[in-house]
Amino acid sequence: MRNKDISRRDIFKGAGALVVTFSLFGSVADALGQATAHIDPYGNSDYLDPTSLDSWLAIMQDGTVKVFTGKVDLGTGVETALAQIVADELDVPFRRVQMVMGDTAKTVDQGRTAGSATIERAGPQVRQAVAAGRLEMLKMAAARWQVPVDKLAVSDGVISVIGDPAKKVSYADLIGGQLFNVKITAKGTQGAMQVAPEVKPKGYQDYKVVGTPVPRVDLPPKLTGEFTYTADFRLPGMLHGRVVRPSTVISKPTSVDESSIAHIPGIVRVVQDGSFVGVVAQTEWAAVQGAAKLKVTWSTPASKMPANREEVAKYIMNTKSFTDNGPAPKGDVDAAFSNAARTFEATYHWPFQNHGMMGPSCAVADVRGDKVTIWTGAQGTFTTRDRVSDMLGVAKRNVDVIFVESSGCYGRLTTDDAAEDAVLMSRAVGKPVRVQWMRADEHVWEPKGPQQLMMVRAAIDDQGKITAWDFKGRTFPWTEAQGTPQLGERQIGQKNTAPYPGSPVGAGAVAQLYDILNQKVMASYVPWPQDDPTPLRTNPLRSPGEPAGWFASESFVDEIAAALGVDAFQFRVRQLTGNQRAAELLQSTVQQSGWKERPSPAPAAGQAKAAGRGVALIARGNTLVAAVAEVEVDRSTGNVAVKRITVGHDCGLIINPDGLKFQIEANAIQGVSRAVMEEVKFDETGVKSVDWRSYPVITFRNVPEVDIVLKNRPQNPSSGAGEPGIVPMFGAIGNAIFDAVGARLREGPFTPERVLSAMKASGGISRRA
Amino acid sequence: MARISLKVNNKTQVVDVDPSTPLLYVLRDNLELNGPRFGCGLAQCGACTVIMDGNAIRSCVTPVSAVQNHNLTTLEGLGSVAKPHALQAAFIEEQAAQCGFCMNGMIMNAKVLIDKNPSPTDDDIKRALDPILCRCGSHLRVIRAIQRAAKSMEV
């Protein structure tokens, strides 16, 4: 949140403090646009009307262009990228565009900011909406001068008559500070909404701002301390809350001894509701100490945590799935296997991993009777609104959820726990409460990326082509899904009405790249063993399920290539005859990496440190990513140093090449971290990964070089880039380790112990068999 | 509670707080300096870094009573959007942040590094910043930004 954005909400900067007054819908300082929102934001609906142009666009008197979107910026730069789209479509200078993001009372619900869909889905929605606005303003000017619309031109927000440049009017002079009061078309909801499809937007040939590396608008204040993150948001009279949760399956607090913290000055209230326990205090430090020292005795949980990942693996393998899905099968897999020259089979396994937000969950809530205001970094402010409305039994329209950016979250804030915690505490004390989780709260209770098992079989003909592919993925679904009661709600007694909901994704999305005639791909989801909230709960983790799913399939492709004695790149090209776009991307990526064609593993050089390279290719939606990893494996310790990653990326039309490169680079680095070192540890007594020592992530000395090959296809629509870049990393690195030491890792992460044990299992040989 | 005098960003201010309070909470909640951030409260991530008498300290584990009579500098003390410090300008120039939450630790530790070693190598930077965590993966740009700042400060 930058200060100029919040000025719109009567937030003044006084004496260095942010002070907020309460006039949510009647802002005086800002009789700006969106007056619909000021009068009655919802009309007869719980949502701002997407068919009103005013819901999307406001031209201010000073010429500022405000565009309202339900999407939010999670630190990836989409605020800047969307503004680039707007600037081009409206022919206004980039710096004049302001995005207002993720306020349930002021923006259209375009779906959660998730699934790498902001540029792909909301981009066209915003583009069409402002194109409709541009056309409206052209019509107004055309009527003024009695000329046809196509005789008008726009430059820098000024409409003029072609051939009669004396006739000109700025957008601001036309409609600045006023409503459009114009209806546009909007069909469908959220990400699938079609906005003003009847309006023809510009062609990509006419883009001036799109395609250029416009610097991020949010970065300067983030680098000087002037940016307002959720954690920095303060209200007058605001109190501080901290939560008290066990590190295991939640049971009942049999005793909460308030006297144990009575000596701490500033404690306001111990809030207990069902199994929810929180401490509210006047200062943060009092709340921190109070929550740490409060004596709570918990009953024995109704069910135990699993003892270790092996036990979870057995459970996943042997428990009847409740849902199985996948693409329609192709061809006749069984026949292809019986006719095969050779067949292969392997099982892969990936553990629970954390999102690991640097800043733990935080939210501010103000519950005043049946009116609730929440400031949060949620990926889905509408989801938070609906959950809180349900939890408190108040109307949706009485809950205003305002996005204030948090720490980068990578899917974690699709579940807005801190907001519910803050609501429960604010309701109890009748004052605004800011809740911040402590580090252990976040590490233990963040909803994790679930453990996955992948079983793959393939049949090969005598030409070395894959003729059949049989992939089975098994995992847990999200416990925390959009629209179901979440942690705080369940603690106060709300039952999880749909215990195993959500749209399972990930492990099924393999094998769509290669021209394999016979395919069966199935993702199966097993129910959770616990009914009570467990710290092994799950929600989407960056490109849900896919890094591990593609680790399995791209390792398996590599295993086959190695067994056939064929270069890993060449072997893939052989299976890509029907996918020119992927073949081209793969080709330019390996070329950039300096790939020398030869089979894996590399001929043993006999050094203590063995070098290897590996490749992986993935598709996610319409985005393609190829990656080459170069590693050095220490034969005596098993330590894997990832030296360089080369990434080729094709996501259609590039909006901001610098922002895109950064996403790719960041995905590569986070991917290396998850590939080589990250695993959530637990036993029957609870989660043992409680901080950055017990759950280490990559640090400077282990960060590889990252080399990027961007493929721009301006004639194609933009597809996602926030997540696809991480997807090939596990596979490329695993394949590079095999290339270096001849040991195949079918389980991650690739820790020294696991690498040593795989080397031992492969006979300790590092030579080609 | 105790009255404690703090010299932060060349300004002396008196706060009335529990003297055991970690400096971080006092800077943020009493002085409303948002630059230093809460990441872990365990001195494991560096997001709370401030400079005390020329050295980087972790304000999340430093009691406020221990820093009286010392010179403290926070991110705000380096510069502003209107007048950025050379390091902040270089980070902006290199677009070296994603969510930006960890950047206080990056910039403050880089400041201490450059003050002591005006021409750091990439390895010097990696060593100095290794204890500072970033989850978004901005590391490579951070290194470039620090190199750029060091060069701009040479003249």
Task: Provide structural commentary.
The complex is a heterodimer of chains A (769) and B (155). By secondary structure, chain A is α+β, with helices and mostly antiparallel strands. Chain A folds into 4 domains: 3-221, 2-Layer Sandwich (Aldehyde Oxidoreductase, domain 4); 232-301 and 361-436, 2-Layer Sandwich (Aldehyde Oxidoreductase, domain 4), CATH 3.30.365; 309-345 and 448-525, Aldehyde Oxidoreductase, domain 4 (2-Layer Sandwich); 546-761, Aldehyde Oxidoreductase, domain 4. Helix content of chain A is 27%, strand content 23%. Chain A has 19 helices and 30 strands. In chain A, the strands form 9 sheets. In chain A, strands 13-14-11-21-18-19-20 form a 7-stranded mixed beta sheet, sandwiched between helices. A 5-stranded mixed beta sheet of chain A has the order 16-24-23-22-17, with helices on both faces. In chain A, strand 23 (466-475), helix 13 and strand 24 (518-525) form a beta-alpha-beta unit. In chain A, helix 3 (78-90) runs parallel beside helix 4 (118-145), helix 14 (546-564) runs parallel beside helix 18 and helix 17 (657-676) packs across helix 18 (729-741). Chain A is globular, with a radius of gyration of 27 Å. The model of chain A is unreliable at 3-39 and 764-769 (pLDDT under 50). Chain B has 2 domains: 2-78, Roll (Ubiquitin-like (UB roll)), CATH 3.10.20; 86-154, [2Fe-2S]-binding domain (DNA polymerase, domain 1), CATH 1.10.150.120. In chain B, a hairpin with a 2-residue loop joins strand 1 and strand 2 (11-17). Chain B is globular and about 45 Å long. Chain B has 6 helices and 5 strands, in the order E-E-H-E-E-E-H-H-H-H-H. By secondary structure, chain B is an alpha+beta fold. Chain B has a 5-stranded mixed beta sheet with strand order 2-1-5-3-4, sandwiched between helices. Chain B is 37% helix and 16% strand. Classes of the chains: A alpha+beta (769), B alpha+beta (155). Chains A and B meet through helix 6, helix 7 and helix 17 of A and helix 1, helix 2, helix 3, helix 4 and helix 5 of B.
